Amino acid sequence: xxxxxxxxxxxxxxxxxxxxxxxxxxxxxxxxxxxxxxxxxxxxxxxxxxxxxxxxxxxxxxxxxxxxxxxxxxxxxxxxxxxxxxxxxxxxxxxxxxxxxxxxxxxxxxxxxxxxxxxxxxxxxxxxxxxxxxxxxxxxxxxxxxxxxxxxxxxxxxxxxxxxxxxxxxxxxxxxxxxxxxxxxxxxxxxxxxxxxxxxxxxxxxxxxxxxxxxxxxxxxxxxxxxxxxxxxxxxxxxxxxxxxxxxxxxxxxxxxxxxxxxxxxxxxxxxxxxxxxxxxxxxxxxxxxxxxxxxxxxxxxxxxxxxxxxxxxxxxxxxxxxxxxxxxxxxxxxxxxxxxxxxxxxxxxxxxxxxxxxxxxxxxxxxxxxxxxxxxxxxxxxxxxxxxxxxxxxxxxxxxxxxxxxxxxxxxxxxxxxxxxxxxxxxxxxxxxxxxxxxxxxxxxxxxxxxxxxxxxxxxxxxxxxxxxxxxxxxxxxxxxxxxxxxxxx
Length: 491
Prior knowledge:
single chain, alpha/beta, Rossmann fold, Aminopeptidase, 3 domains, 21% strand
């Protein structure tokens, strides 16, 4: 299907930053690369960002109403009608449930790019949330029926971050430091961080001031031979590739840095950012520096110096970051826009035990015609899966119908401090086979597992299941062992 027309509604300012517009710019680039057209409707846009938007070929349409209100929604709908838009992309916490409903009732398909999953309801067709990984419960419990594109597999990266380049060199001494706190830095933490590191003469410090930053004179007053300040550069990707470690506040900048393999020390501005950074820090992907309001210059310097001296730590962070953000998220979102109702996955909930066990019985009976479910299977199989946070059980959805399921998860290595990804079951009802559902959901399961950076991903195929073997081989799996089972009563 040839891409049509997107209308994007997003704003940027000192108060809210530039991240909403920049990630929408990433989506617009990919949409245009696929042959579509995109326009941006804004109520607020810093003068320093406007040339960048127009250089990408986006037409900019002004919204004169108060941002986020009913009049804004009406103006957005009017712009969408004038453009004959196929989709309206909405990005920003100021656009509540009523705003989404007005746009959708007007007959437009809605893609919501979300951060907090805290609206009263979610009248949308697609929801993208790279920060929130998991089963989508925060959306489902509020009645969302949209297809959910969640986790780092759907990070929206601009073209300069998606282009393949040479592998990042992890230098012996990691003293090239990048400070970049987003497009506006509303807390004005940048000068404090710069002053703390300017006293370390062995560091080479580059400070980036974004398009919405309005305290440039404070940075110009910092006098240090080891520090340079760059204002609103057009080539952020190159700065990130050239540095050894970066000091940031979580947001879109986080995913950009991970995609290029840079070691990251990150502060947090809000609860969701803190949740994301804590989770990544626990997995060794980033260094959690805490909340911006608790900035401690001595702690920052100590953390930076530790990474300067540890090439292995920076190499490990590079590998984990690159595994988490593979650069294909924008393409996946574009694909989902073009095929919104084709296929997907939804978590199996505790209320669906009967329906799931009925389908599971079909699966196991097909694999083993003599299979008879015993009482312990009926009582424990489903409950055990849902009780374990390392198991992920999903419905396979095709044209809004539950047509199968996939069960995958993580296991602790028996002897090493590692996690192994495992795909346990994949089943599609016979009447829905040969439509690509199994392969599409297998790929999604693999993506979700890779987000946890397992040492390997493995599975077992029962002897004689030729179609199953062919599927997994087509996805790159290789046979590495033969498994033997001793029948009951032998020897």
